[in-house]
Write a structure and sequence with these properties.
By secondary structure, this protein is α+β, with helices and mostly antiparallel strands. It is built from 16 helices and seven strands. Helices cover about 55% and strands about 15% of the residues.
């Protein structure tokens, strides 16, 4: 009798344990299926409102609107700076044609032309108030006095050159002498300091004239925003470093904006600024909500991965494969979180700019532009729930490793052509004067752009270099267009065809997908080390699988 009771207790205990294991397995399967469902499927399954999807749609609309508003304002700022630079060049540079060369605006070739151009700057600067048609004037100190204009000349300490005798005596040490004077009387310098303007051109390296101007950008009133006050730091350089008989004259301007200290404006400009600040604050709130929801999903995914890993280990003595782990660690959520952080930083900078506390327009535009790019790229995630729209994502995922390795090999050849073109053709062709310009020129040739101009612009004064340039350009174009580019396209095409075949015939199943389909035929643990090359090759697609009949088990979360 005791044996019978003992047997029944053991049977009940075993049955209870098996029931708990089955329930635990079913709960895990249900949680995994729900996690990998699309937002619409989650709503149909448990009537849970897809908050993340709603927040993402709202965020796309708001961030795009914010970017457009800021972009229009930024265009006004950039155009104001560029037009002021053009106006100042026409005011201060004698015989300026309106077109700059590569690194200078105009050039003079005679001593008289040099003096005329230098004194022309001083004369124009002293009469600025009667010349400029824009709201621009001299800068002042805090006490109200005008900031001086500073003229500095830099020359060799000692220099005696006799080209006819092939002789020279140069002391390479440089000396710099500067003078400063009141802006309104700058035209009298030539009579008050005659010795300073007695120049020895064999020793002269350069002369710089620096001064500061003030301006107000009134065009922002049209967009119902408060105008900014600007400080223009002007440097006019007479460059004689080459001593080639050609003195290059350039005007550089650094514009810094700030809030005007004493202003009065009527209308709705200030009210409009308040509305924009409220809108930016709401954008920050939406981005914070999106980041919190995505972080919550990542935490949930990590917990599910731990549960699934523990289940495989306890039930089948297996480890979760790397592809299955990547399904849980969703890169889309990371992309959304990064875009949210960039949008928050950009919005804060924009609010500071609107409040006239900062003037970092370029930094703000980089943050807002990058966040908007990532937000729109993230839309592809939701298109991936549909099989016909999912081809792009799967093709990129499958082709990326091969394309990356191929680009590394092709990049070595590309760098070789870049350095070779710069050192040989740089002195004779404007498109090869710098490494960055060479790389840009070769990239244009690679895409079939600007070929004839590149060939035609090469100076044929040096026959040897001309012959080398032909061999250089023909070999690059033939190699990269007919071979490298064709192989690059072939890699992507091959990945696309492979994905199409898998979508037609079915993808190889991973442990996660078998578990979701309630299959029990997991391979033994010792077989993991005996996988064939075909299985390894298929592993890159194992997490991309999507069959029409299993839409409730989509592995794109």
């Amino acid at each position: 009798m005791e044996l019978l009771v003992r047997y029944l207790n053991r049977s009940n205990s075993t049955s209870s344990t098996m029931t708990q294991d089955v329930m635990k397995e079913e709960n895990l399967r249900d949680d995994l299926k729900y996690y990998f469902m699309s937002p619409c499927e989650k709503y149909r399954a448990r009537r849970h409102i897809p908050w993340k999807l709603a927040v993402q749609i709202l965020k796309i609309v708001m961030i795009t609107t914010q970017l457009i508003l800021f972009g229009l304002n930024n265009q006004l700022v950039v155009s104001y700076k560029e037009e002021n630079a053009m106006a100042l060049k026409n005011l201060f540079l004698k015989d300026y044609s309106g077109v700059d060369e590569d690194d200078y605006s105009i050039a003079v070739y005679t001593q008289q032309g040099f003096y005329d151009s230098m004194f022309y700057v001083l004369d124009q600067y002293s009469r600025l108030g009667h010349l400029s048609v824009g709201p621009i004037s001299y800068a002042k100190y805090e006490n109200g006095s005008l900031l001086p204009v500073i003229v500095c000349k830099e020359h060799y300490k000692k220099g005696n050159v006799e080209p006819s005798d092939d002789a020279y005596d140069i002391d390479a040490q440089l000396e710099k002498v500067c003078l400063s004077h009141d802006p309104t009387t700058a035209n009298k310098w030539r009579t008050q300091n005659p010795s300073f303007f007695e120049l020895h051109f064999n020793r002269l390296v350069d002369i710089t004239l620096t001064f500061q101007l003030k301006g107000i950008n009134l065009q922002t009133v049209r967009s119902r925003e408060l105008p900014d006050c600007y400080s223009f730091f002007i440097t006019i350089t007479f460059d004689n470093q080459c001593h080639s008989g050609k003195v290059k004259i350039s005007l550089d301007m650094d514009a810094q904006s700030s809030a005007c200290r004493d202003w009065k404006i009527s209308g709705t400009a200030q009210k409009n600024t308040h509305y924009l600040l409220v809108f930016d604050a709401f954008v920050i709130l939406v981005c914070l909500t999106s980041a919190v929801l995505c972080t919550r999903s990542i935490i949930l995914a990590v917990r599910l991965l731990q549960r699934f890993s523990r289940f495989l280990h306890e039930s089948y003595n297996r480890k979760v494969c790397e592809d299955d782990q990547n399904e849980f660690l969703n890169g889309w959520y990371v992309l959304v979180i990064v875009s949210d952080l960039l949008a928050i930083i950009g919005s804060i900078l924009k609010m500071e700019i609107q409040a006239k506390s900062l003037t970092s327009y370029d930094v703000c535009s980089i943050f807002l532009g990058t966040s908007t790019l990532m937000v729109w790229v993230g839309v592809i995630r939701y298109l991936g729930y549909f099989q016909k729209y999912n081809v792009l994502i799967l093709t990129m995922k499958a082709a990326f490793p091969k394309v990356l390795r191929f680009c590394c090999c092709a990049g070595m050849i590309y760098l070789g052509y870049t350095f070779c073109g710069w050192i040989v053709l740089g002195p004779y062709h404007e498109k090869f004067e710098g490494l960055s310009r060479v790389a840009e020129c070769l990239f244009s040739l690679l895409n079939g752009d600007d070929m004839f101009t590149t060939f035609a612009q090469l100076k044929d004064k040096n026959t040897l270099v001309w012959l080398f340039s032909r061999a250089y350009l023909y070999s690059f174009i033939s190699l990269f267009i007919y071979m490298v580019l064709s192989l690059f396209i072939a890699l992507i095409t091959d990945a696309y065809e492979t994905i199409k075949n898998y979508q037609k015939d079915g993808f190889p199943l991973t442990d996660l997908q078998k578990f979701l389909r309630e299959q029990k035929d997991f391979p033994a643990a010792e077989e993991e080390n005996n996988q064939t090359d075909v299985q390894v090759r298929h592993s890159m697609f194992c997490c991309c699988e999507r069959l029409p009949e299993s839409d409730d088990m989509i592995l794109i979360s």
